[in-house]
Amino acid sequence: EELLVESGGDLVQPGGSLRLSCAASGFTFSNYAMHWVRQAPGKGLEWVAGISGSDGRTYYADSVKGRFTISRDNSKNTLFLQMNSLRAEDTAVHYCARGDAGAFDVWGPGTMVAVSS
Amino acid sequence: QSALTQPPSASGSPGQSVTISCTGTSSDIGRYNFVSWYQQHPGKAPKLLIYVVTKRPSGVPARFSGSKSGNTASLTVSGLQAEDEADYYCNSYAGINNWVFGGGTKLTVL
Lengths: 117, 110
Prior knowledge:
The structure holds 2 protein chains of 2 kinds.
Chain A: E1 3-7, E2 11-12, E3 18-25, E4 33-39, E5 45-51, E6 58-60, E7 68-73, E8 78-83, E9 92-100, E10 103-107, E11 111-115
Parallel strand pairs in A: 2-11
Antiparallel strand pairs in A: 1-3, 3-8, 4-5, 4-9, 5-6, 7-8, 9-10, 9-11
Chain B: E1 9-12, E2 18-23, E3 35-40, E4 47-50, E5 64-69, E6 72-77, E7 86-93, E8 99-101, E9 105-109
Parallel strand pairs in B: 1-9
Antiparallel strand pairs in B: 2-6, 3-4, 3-7, 5-6, 7-8, 7-9
């Protein structure tokens, strides 16, 4: 079974940093692009960042560019999201998702990031 | 990149059909066939229903179908069932390695 499980969500103060992880299993991780998608409380989905499977090219939404860094360790089947200079508007459930055929076909259960003083 | 436009709500009775629209621009839906739809029940992760406009992943019932015309994509749910009550989101590739979601539609089964 193809599974994704996020971890690392926490309550952090504005301006702080957090590193999210996403452990993948049940598929050849290096063959797929991976993404982070977030959902603020009571709001819709927002694509945050993506990374290609093999060459590690990265892509970001304008709202996080320069503050967030997506990376992956194919030897450990793990995706990461380093989040710096966090703002209140970054408060959201953060999902990792597998990319395939232009869609997000496998999702994790999500991890909550709360930014508040 | 602006979000795609979806109606905030839709409804139908069991057995009926309902169509949810998703309007973008010539830079996203109008240019690419990477249009997908997701179902999300409260407190759960989204689930892929439709990809590349019309295709269904294995396990998704044939009651769910997708289409596209110009800058607008649509999701049709036929033979509505109680378990179809959920939030539905469209998504499109928007070029330059950027993806955009719709604001979501809450589907109520009356």
